[in-house]
Backbone:
């Protein structure tokens, strides 16, 4: 009997614990739902505020970028105007430099052409001499062969 009462008591405590846990779970769910319902408008307003703040920041940065670009352009124009006064001097210097380099180039080209012509003449003379030598050797060889042939014919006769 005591054991049955104890088992019954344990069952009862177990059910109560489960009931309490279930109620606590419902409370937590309700609380979370309520918290979310309260947070959603706050999150939306925070998002809108952040979006407005970001837009203002972007506009400010864009204005700074534009003013910086305008200042850089003004400086570039001043620099261009300042350097344009030197344009004639630069062109004069370039012309002189090109002229001096052109004369050096033409001198070297003439020297090369002269050496080329001399080398061609030398090679032409050498080829002429070799051909003359070859013709002389060929002439003597043919003459000797002719004499040899004649001697052989006379021997045969």
Residues:
């Amino acid at each position: 009997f005591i054991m049955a009462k104890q088992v019954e008591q344990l069952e009862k405590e177990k059910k109560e614990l489960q009931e309490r846990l279930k109620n606590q779970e419902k409370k937590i769910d309700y609380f979370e739902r309520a918290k979310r319902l309260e947070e959603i408008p706050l999150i939306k307003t925070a998002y809108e505020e952040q979006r407005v703040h970001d837009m203002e920041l972007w506009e400010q940065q864009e204005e700074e970028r534009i003013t910086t670009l305008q200042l850089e352009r003004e400086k570039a124009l001043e620099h261009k105007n300042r350097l344009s006064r030197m344009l004639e001097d630069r062109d004069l210097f370039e012309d002189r430099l090109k002229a001096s380099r052109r004369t050096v180039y033409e001198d070297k080209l003439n020297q090369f052409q002269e050496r080329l012509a001399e080398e061609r003449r030398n090679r032409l003379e050498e080829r002429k001499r070799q051909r003359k030598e070859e013709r002389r050797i060929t002439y003597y060889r043919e003459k000797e062969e002719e004499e040899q042939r004649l001697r052989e014919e006379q021997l045969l006769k």
